[in-house]
Design brief:
It is a single chain. The protein is an alpha/beta fold. The chain has 3 domains: 292 residues, TIM Barrel, CATH 3.20.20.70; 105 residues, Helix Hairpins; 116 residues, Alpha-isopropylmalate synthase LeuA, regulatory domain (Double Stranded RNA Binding Domain, 2-Layer Sandwich), CATH 3.30.160.270. Helices cover 37% and strands 20% of the residues. The chain has 17 helices and 19 strands. The strands form 5 sheets. An 8-stranded parallel β-barrel has the order 4-5-6-7-8-9-10-11, surrounded by 8 helices. Strands 1-2-3 form a 3-stranded antiparallel beta sheet. It has a 3-stranded antiparallel beta sheet with strand order 14-15-16, covered by helices on one side. Helix 6 runs parallel beside helix 7 and helix 16 packs parallel to helix 17. The chain is globular. The N and C termini lie far apart (71 Å).
């Protein structure tokens, strides 16, 4: 095979790169388990020289893709709250679920309709597989809607055809065409609904481009859209398999080769398996797409769907009106977190806790000087170092973490503890201790110094000795056949000042001590998390251990312990957590 060779398929629409065996980090040949994704043979590509100048049609799939990816799916009431949030943001197309597959999603759509909760300018979208009984059930769910999109799909990629379904290309086309005919025949049963039709060749990102066009042409020929009455062709990167430029080539190639281009809306639905869903979406728009499906903050299966908040605000920073309202990004984030039970990462673009916070002194200085100049300018053009957007445009403020007070977040407290004293608190512990410092600041009514933070940490976690104080701790390895009792421990404690000795067995020192405490002194509890690290460098350095436990009432408490012996540091941390739980 030459260094670049055209793949032999019907239309020569991709170019393969050679599979090269390269050494891994150990100097050994890499197994030929993976191969580069084929490049697209598109010599006249136009997308690299284009600029996004208008917002696409946005479609939120938070209530379908997003909801199905939640450990605890939303209830009907929670879905209604999310639907209202999406309406308030400005979405005019909202996928409300898969009503034929779930009674709760059917009931949700019926409640939206029956309680007249869908604004006249909002089009609800429903998803359905290309299966007759599901399509008929979906039409039942749509009765009474004013504006709707019926989103039909079936899988088209080689691995889906051959491995999952065992079908030929023609059989896949027949499924899509037959289902489209059924949808078209049932459309008159919704006489009062402005119904749009959408088709997705699921797994488009892994489908041969020539076949993707063939399937979509067959569907379009059946539906017969017109420039005045368009249909939607949604091209999902169901799994992100290549770099964003390849995705853009796929979209542009498709746009150039689809027959009824003036009668179809090309829609993107990118996932984030490679972490480039936003870039792939932006380049896909440059390549000719006019519509984007995604979710708030990127919630979705695996690594998520494309994050519509970031895509929209990226446009905003380029002077393009996204036609979505994120003036109160904190309110949007709060509603999202309440509805999904998920947290937005502190470094999330635009909405993260720390994205408008500078810890670096040089950054703080540059931003402060830039803001001072900006405030004096007659030209409104935003130009401040390190801030690509004015935080106030989305309801936020720039914060420089120099001091800690009642307004400071947990991130600043954790930053000072780590950078001044070496304590690297686990994420959940930062939240717990951050609240303690905030309460302290509220009571004092002034700034909290780093030394005060250190003293509070020690008093809260390291010096708490009631009701238990550890005096001595000993372990013994046992030669037995029971791995759950391979270690015996004995601990000398002071319990409210009175000496007491406990002993227990477990699969390690911590487990043995837990069993000893459970058997004699404390109610049942669970170990939730454990971490440790060195506080200084060198053989005599102290180590710190952090342990989180959960009580029978489902309350969690952290403990911390320090010692030159990591085993003792861990036992001290467990005693600390128990003391905090019992004194609460």
């Amino acid at each position: 095979m030459s260094m670049t060779q055209i793949v032999t398929d019907e239309q020569h629409d991709v170019v393969a790169q050679p599979s090269v065996s390269q050494p891994n980090g150990n100097g050994k040949p890499m197994l030929k388990k993976y191969q580069p994704f084929p490049q697209i043979d598109l010599s006249n590509r136009q997308w690299p020289t284009r600029t996004i100048t208008t917002a696409p049609i946005w479609c939120s799939v938070d209530l379908r893709d997003g909801n199905q990816a939640l450990a605890i799916p939303m209830s009907v009431d929670e879905k209604i709250a999310m639907f209202q949030l999406l309406v308030d943001i400005g979405f005019k197309e909202i996928e409300v679920g898969f009503p034929a597959a779930s009674q709760i999603e059917f009931d949700f759509l019926r409640r939206l309709v029956d309680e007249n909760l869908i604004p006249d300018d909002v089009r609800v979208q429903v998803l359905v597989q290309a299966r007759e009984h599901l399509i008929r059930r979906t039409f039942d769910s749509l009765q009474g809607t004013k504006k709707a999109i019926l989103h039909l799909y079936n899988s088209t990629s080689p691995v889906q055809r051959e491995v999952v379904f065992g079908m030929s290309k023609q059989e896949i086309i027949d499924i899509a065409v037959s289902a489209t005919k059924l949808v078209k025949s049932l459309a008159p049963t919704l006489p009062d609904t402005d119904l749009m039709f959408q088709y997705s060749p699921e797994s488009f990102s892994a489908t041969e481009l020539s076949f993707a066009v063939e399937v979509c042409d067959a569907v379009a020929d059946t539906w017969q859209p017109t420039p005045e009455r368009k249909m939607i062709l949604n091209l999902p990167a169901t799994v992100e398999l290549a770099t964003p430029n390849v995705h853009a080539d796929q979209i542009e190639w498709f746009c150039q080769n689809i027959h009824k281009r003036d009668s179809v809306i090309i829609s993107l639905h990118t996932h984030n398996d490679r972490g480039t869903g936003i870039a792939a979406t932006e380049l896909g728009l440059l390549a000719g797409a006019e519509r984007v499906e995604g979710t708030l903050f990127g919630n979705g299966e695996r690594t998520g769907n494309v994050d519509l908040v970031t895509v929209a605000l990226n446009m905003y920073t380029q002077g393009v009106d996204p036609h979505l309202n994120f003036d109160d990004i904190n309110g949007v984030r709060l509603a999202y977190e309440q509805g999904t039970r998920m947290l937005v990462h502190s470094r999330h673009p635009y909405a993260g806790d720390l994205v408008f916070t500078a810890f670096s002194g040089s950054h703080q200085d540059a931003i402060n000087k830039g803001m001072a100049v900006q405030n004096k300018k007659t030209d409104p053009l935003w130009d401040v170092p390190y801030l690509p957007i004015d935080p106030q445009d989305i309801g936020r403020n720039y914060e420089a973490i120099i001091r800690i007070n009642a307004q400071s977040g947990k991130g600043g407290v954790a930053y000072l503890l780590e950078h001044e004293f070496g304590f690297k608190l686990p994420k959940a512990m930062r939240i717990e201790f951050g609240k303690i410092i905030n309460d302290m600041a509220d009571k004092l009514g002034n700034e909290i110094s780093s030394l005060q933070i250190r003293e509070s940490f020690e008093q809260t976690y390291l010096h708490i000795t009631s009701p238990f104080k550890l005096e001595k701790f000993r372990t013994q390895l046992l030669n037995n056949d029971d791995p759950d009792k391979s270690v015996r421990c004995e601990a000398d404690l002071l319990i409210d000042g009175k000496p007491h000795t406990v002993q227990g067995y477990g699969n390690g020192p911590i487990n043995a001590f837990m069993q000893a405490m459970k058997e004699e002194l404390v109610p049942e509890f669970r170990l939730l998390s454990y971490s440790e690290h060195s506080l200084q460098k060198g053989s005599g350095a102290e180590a710190v251990s952090y342990i989180q436990i959960c009580t029978p009432s489902n309350e969690s408490f952290f403990g911390a312990g320090t010692d030159t012996n990591i085993e003792l540091a861990s036992i001290k941390a467990l005693v600390s957590a128990l003391n905090r739980a019992l004194s609460n």
